[in-house]
Structure to design on (357 residues):
């Protein structure tokens, strides 16, 4: 019985391993592209829908990289600034909550 | 002998089910949430704008109302806006799919600032992304607001509230809220895409095709989003329990 269970486990492991190997070989050629761009366009084309250029097309060479860098910097700065503002208020509000209880 | 045969049959069926499930979980491609410019036909794009408009308007009204009462609410909204903006344009490689996709961040904002304001925050983040980052589209803005803003925020908020009401641990509730916010977003995107691009084809087969294509990417990303949401909730609990009380995430006695 014990042997049978371990045999069953081995079969499952083997299938998982084979599937993973096949899967890895399939995705090896993939370029880690954003699926919202490459795949949606592909499926949309299959159904007769063409993707249009964005109103402000920043997807030109390294321009998009630069815009993402700016967005990340501004977003990161804003997040850090507001986080600091919130955590600094802690000391002020700590007494308020104790009084309210 | 008979028992042995039936046990072997069960083993065989189990392996077959696992194999089929795994094969269906490992297609080569999948979708991400932001629907690109021009993908949806005019009537569907307009329809999703009409669906999104009342939610965004209510979010604006709610933000004005709450900000008048409590000025300290603004930094939290600012933080959540930055978090949603950054998270929703942050491509994360998913080895199981060989693609990149992004979490949404609407689970955490739905919990902390409420779904109405979270929808507004998401709308602004999506607009900036559509305008300057070639991420999503202006014509598909309404559809993106509905999937990420409305469904993501509401799913996160309701899951968290439901689990907390039955006394589930805060970290677990946060995790599940993030997970369901992510999955609800992609479920809605599947509906929007299938209904928009199907033409004369039947809706359901295309819907399932898209939804299954999402799974390899969003299954791990949903778990990641759940972990991020739980982490942020726990961090805020340690740093600002009073804020969680104010936002009705915690009861006063739980903050001590």
């Amino acid at each position: 019985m014990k042997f049978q269970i371990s045999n069953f486990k081995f079969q499952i492991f083997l299938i998982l391993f084979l599937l993973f190997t096949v899967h890895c070989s399939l995705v090896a050629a993939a370029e880690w592209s954003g699926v919202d761009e490459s795949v949606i366009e592909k499926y949309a084309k299959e159904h007769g829908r063409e993707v249009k250029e964005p109103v402000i097309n920043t997807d030109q060479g390294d321009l998009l990289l630069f815009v993402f860098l700016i967005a990340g910097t501004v977003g990161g700065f804003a997040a850090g600034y507001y986080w600091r503002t919130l955590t600094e208020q802690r000391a002020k509000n700590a007494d308020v909550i104790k009084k309210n209880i | 002998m008979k028992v042995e045969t039936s046990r072997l049959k069960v083993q065989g069926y189990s392996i077959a089910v696992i194999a089929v499930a795994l094969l269906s979980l490992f297609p080569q491609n999948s979708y991400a949430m932001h629907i690109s410019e021009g993908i949806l036909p005019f009537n569907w794009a307009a329809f999703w704008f009409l669906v999104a408009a009342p939610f965004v308007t209510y979010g604006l009204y709610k933000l004005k109302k709450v900000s008048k009462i409590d000025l300290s609410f603004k930094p939290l909204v600012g933080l959540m806006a930055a978090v949603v903006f950054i998270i929703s344009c942050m491509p994360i490689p998913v080895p199981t799919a060989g693609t990149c996709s992004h979490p949404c961040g609407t689970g955490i904002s739905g919990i902390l600032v409420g779904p109405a304001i979270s929808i507004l925050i998401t709308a602004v983040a999506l607009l900036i992304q559509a305008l300057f980052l070639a991420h999503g589209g202006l014509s598909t803005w309404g559809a993106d607001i509905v999937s990420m803003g409305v469904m993501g925020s509401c799913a996160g908020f309701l899951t968290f509230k439901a689990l907390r009401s039955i006394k589930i641990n805060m970290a677990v509730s946060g995790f599940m809220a993030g997970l369901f916010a992510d999955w609800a977003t992609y479920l809605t995107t599947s509906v929007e895409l299938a209904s928009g691009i199907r033409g004369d084809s039947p809706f359901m087969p295309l819907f399932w095709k898209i939804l299954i294509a999402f799974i390899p990417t969003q299954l791990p990303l949903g778990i990641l989003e759940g972990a991020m949401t739980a982490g942020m909730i726990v961090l805020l609990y340690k740093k600002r329990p009073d804020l969680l009380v104010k936002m009705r995430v915690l009861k006063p006695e739980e903050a001590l």
